[in-house]
Amino acid sequence: MTTPRDQGRGPDTPGLAVLQRRIRVALGKEPGDLALTGGRVVNVFTGLVQEANVVLADGWVAGVGPYGWAARETIALPGRVVLPGLIDAHMHLESTLLTPAELARLVVPRGTTATVSDSHEVANVLGVEGIDQLLRSSAGLPLDLFFMASSCVPAARWEDAGAVLGPAEVRDLLARPRVLGLAEMMDVPAVLAGDPWALEKVQAALARRSAVDGHAPGMSGRDLMAYVAAGIRSDHESATPEEARAKAGWGMLVQVREGSVARNLDALLPLLAAGELGDDWALVTDDVLPNDLRRDGHLDGLLRRVVAGGVPPAGAVRHATLIPARHYAMLDRGAVAPGYRADLVVVDDLKDFRPVLVVKDGLVVARDGALTADVPSRPVDSGNTVRLAPLDESAFDLKLSGDVCPVIRVVPGQLVTRAETQAVRRSGGRWEFDPGRDVLLIASIERHRATGRVGLGLVSGFGLRRDGAL
Questions:
Q1: Alpha carbon of 369 to those of 102, 185, 305, 428, 441: distances in Å?
Q2: Which of 159, 334, 421, 452 could make an S-S bridge to 154, C-beta 3.0–4.6 Å?
């Protein structure tokens, strides 16, 4: 069996011969490559789940329906359900602590066939070359890893970073075939101030009719309106129903986040079950760790929870497939339908979403939770990028002028923090650890250019009661 990649063409540009053969297979004039028979298909357009056979040709779906297609290989699926391949619409590859190949080994058997990553931590260190390394190391996997052009490297103009992605670098990245748009615009003050350095990046994506993603925690009212007016069309930072309603009401795609660091699904699930967000939501993980992926699953685990919370199964699937595909203009995937990419997942039922078969580009790549495809390992290696100036204990002396100080309050299960003031212990004009107070020292050490700059502050909410360091 051949696929568009085998023919040396881009994955979104099937050749004339491929189109002609697909038509012949659909008409029953020529055998397909693989037929899935006797199952039910989730129609993400209509919300129906109907009995249907599926025939594939050259890595694409040629036909779906009651017809008896011939194929070189047939797999019977009595009573099982065929879904589109799942798409994680917003994540950070580096947060998984895995190389692209190892991520594929872990999530493809769970039914994930595509991810969209803002790898700004890699870009913060290595710039454009870092993203290019990820593009090279993720090629040829049974998982399509797409990337966004990081908008905030550094996160704010005054921060230290190993690289800078200005408007020129963003335009350069947007020309890459697997770079789908502008990643989350975290520098909200710059956008609201009309800063050209930030808005020229937005303009670069809009000029290509590419997605522009947002990062708008806690925003509301005229500030949110102005942020959306800049052309930003998604957000993954809704922690409350009120935030989600406001963003969806102005046309933003609410990316419902449930990862390892921040968890918003439970707070937003009643809105999803009630249909209050309409079509403007998708399931994402943002930052997720490998132990959580192994224990809880990936998007399959989120689908279990969403359906258990009252969202109709076909609707839940739509928001982990077609909706993210449309947001990122990936118009060749996200549905089990003629002319769509043959990225498919077969599950036992629409309650547990346990994948028994995963098909990528028309090829079976996983069975019963085990990867069957060959995954080439291409390590990402740039050597040691940590460059520190000499460091000793004196760098961590936080000098205080009083016994009451500003403190960063951690919010459990969220990325946002709160500003507080708390009483602290001092000794010799310096902060001193007190096991009776939930206040710890936090340090940010410049590690790119060995400048010796160290930022110190205080943080509360970890609940640590012993002197030490992390």
A1: 15, 36, 19, 60, 44
A2: 159
CA torsion 392→393→399→402, rounded to 10°?
A: 170
pLDDT band at 382 (very low <50, low <70, confident <90, very high): low
Tokens of 161: 């970073």
Rounded Cα distance between 199 and 219, Å, is: 19
Structure tokens at 350: 């629409």
The alpha-carbon radius of gyration of the chain (Å, integer) is: 24
* Cβ contact 173:128 at 8 Å: yes
Query: Is 132 exposed, middle or buried (CB count within 10 Å of its CB: 0-12, 13-18, 19+)?
Result: middle
Measure the CA–CA gap between 247 and 326, rounded to whole angstroms.
18
Cα dihedral 395, 124, 378, 132, rounded to 10, equals -160
Using an 8 Å Cβ cutoff, are 220 and 250 in contact? no
Residue 438 sits at φ, ψ, to 5 deg, of -85, 65
Sheet architecture: strand order including 454-460: 417-423, 404-410, 454-460, 440-445
Local structure of 9: helix, strand or coil: coil
The CA distances from residue 146 to 20, 88, 121, 183, 226, in Å, are 28, 10, 16, 11, 29
Q: How far apart are CA 182 and CA 173, in angstroms?
A: 9
Q: Are 405 and 424 in contact (CB under 8 A)?
A: yes
Decide: 222 and 188 in contact? Cβ < 8 Å: no
Q: Which amino acid is at 381?
A: D
Structure token pair of residue 403: 């016994």
Q: What is the DSSP letter of 341?
A: B
CB atoms within 10 A of CB 123: 30
Q: Enumerate residues 6+ apart whose C-beta is below 8 A from 464.
A: 438, 440
User: What pLDDT digit, counting tens, does each position of 104-152 carry?
Assistant: 999 999 999 999 999 999 999 999 999 999 999 999 999 999 999 999 9
Please state the pTM of the whole predicted model.
0.91
Full DSSP string of 433-469: --TTS--EEEEEE--SS----EEEEEEE-S---S---
